[in-house]
């Protein structure tokens, strides 16, 4: 028709289009297929189970055009970029000194690892059953029977023989109570500690957490007022300490001497005694 011949208007389509003959071909052009990117799977802690994400714009696949001897075949691309979930810190087992460790607790990229790295790159990861020495010190026994002494990074708890004054003005064994609170937190659960270095006594300075509950031990000790923030090594727990002080929890409900001042006084007294001699 005139409109169709001149390229204007809309050509009429016969209600019964003729069948394709050897000299005729109907070209089928399929629209592009677009694949929407899949949202990442999210674990219980709100952290994506995989860090692998498809990059770039959605892929577009053009359907091939038919020829005399070929049929039109549409081949859609895979709809998902299947990524393996990151390995669990537990399933990987412990890692020893000199290993650039990336394992962490319940929150791999969050608080525990970040706090441990305040003193350098995490190079030590140990896990095992814990024996509480006092409110800031553990001995971890690993699967092979090896034992590691751990000083919880960023906190300082009363010494075992230290006494404090309670809200009623009566003295109590705050050092013993602090250790008992840490035992109650851990019970018989496995503990994992992340560390960047050791202290002058060869103890691991680590951020530790209960592997079953995910509780970060140092943070919880300060929150409960059973230990104070030890800013010589880390200031991570200063905000938590402020909350405990305001709420008068634990040590903050009465009066106490800072553990480092108590130790200093004990050393001075010991030197004075040794200097006096017989």
UniProtKB/TrEMBL annotation:
Q: Which residues form the TNase-like domain?
A: 131-254
Can you provide one Gene Ontology molecular function annotated for this UniProt record? nuclease activity
Instruction: Please name one Pfam family that this protein belongs to.
Output: SNase
Highest taxon of the lineage? Eukaryota
The record's section on InterPro entries has: SNase_OB-fold_sf, Staphylococal_nuclease_OB-fold, Thermonucl_AS
Q: Where is this region: Disordered?
A: 1-118
| SUPFAM superfamilies assigned to the protein according to its UniProt record, in alphabetical order | Staphylococcal nuclease
Q: What is this protein called?
A: TNase-like domain-containing protein
Q: Which species is this record about?
A: Eutreptiella gymnastica
Lineage of the species this protein comes from: Eukaryota, Discoba, Euglenozoa, Euglenida, Spirocuta
